[in-house]
């Protein structure tokens, strides 16, 4: 099976970066495609227990694809759920853009 740590980092990088550059006012097609992307993970993500838990989590917390800020926040919260499960530190969601879009202010 794939190295789940490497796969996880790569996947979070892709997802957070894609959310950071998602439009503030997405078209219906963009919303639908983002929903399909996120809803695909529970069936396709190649770590089956990760995929199962993520599927349960997004059933309780459905994706908010209404715009960039809300999607980024939703994803940060989902990642923090995984962090909690793994005993990792919680990430401050106010820093999501700094981490994934703008870079640190100096
Ligand atoms: P990662 O958690 O990969 O984070 C990468 C970087 O993202 C961090 O360095 C930090 O800068 C930033 N970051 C951290 N938290 C947030 C946040 N909340 N919002 C925005 N940015 C943040 N592993 C398992 O062992 N069991 C599982 O059940 C499991 N489920 C997963 C489900 C999904 C959908 C994904 C994508 C991954 C899952 N993983 C799981 C992998 C796990 O989340 C980590 O990716 C892996 O353990 C490597 O962790 P890391 O400490 O290198 O940082």
UniProtKB/TrEMBL annotation:
<feature type="domain" description="ERV/ALR sulfhydryl oxidase">
    <location>
        <begin position="1"/>
        <end position="100"/>
    </location>
</feature>
<dbReference type="GO" id="GO:0050660">
    <property type="term" value="F:flavin adenine dinucleotide binding"/>
</dbReference>
<dbReference type="GO" id="GO:0016971">
    <property type="term" value="F:flavin-dependent sulfhydryl oxidase activity"/>
</dbReference>
<keyword id="KW-0496">Mitochondrion</keyword>
<dbReference type="GO" id="GO:0005758">
    <property type="term" value="C:mitochondrial intermembrane space"/>
</dbReference>
<keyword id="KW-0274">FAD</keyword>
<keyword id="KW-0560">Oxidoreductase</keyword>
<keyword id="KW-1015">Disulfide bond</keyword>
<keyword id="KW-0285">Flavoprotein</keyword>
<protein>
    <recommendedName>
        <fullName>Sulfhydryl oxidase</fullName>
        <ecNumber>1.8.3.2</ecNumber>
    </recommendedName>
</protein>
């Amino acid at each position: 099976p794939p190295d789940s740590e490497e796969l996880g980092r790569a996947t979070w990088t892709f997802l957070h970066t894609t959310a950071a550059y998602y439009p503030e006012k997405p078209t219906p097609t963009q919303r639908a495609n983002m929903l399909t992307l996120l809803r695909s993970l529970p069936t396709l993500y190649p770590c089956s227990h990760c995929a199962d838990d993520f599927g349960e989590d997004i059933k309780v917390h459905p994706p908010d694809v209404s715009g960039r800020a809300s999607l980024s926040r939703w994803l940060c919260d989902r990642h923090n759920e995984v962090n909690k499960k793994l005993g990792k530190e919680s990430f401050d969601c106010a820093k999501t853009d700094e981490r994934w879009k703008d870079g640190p202010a100096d």
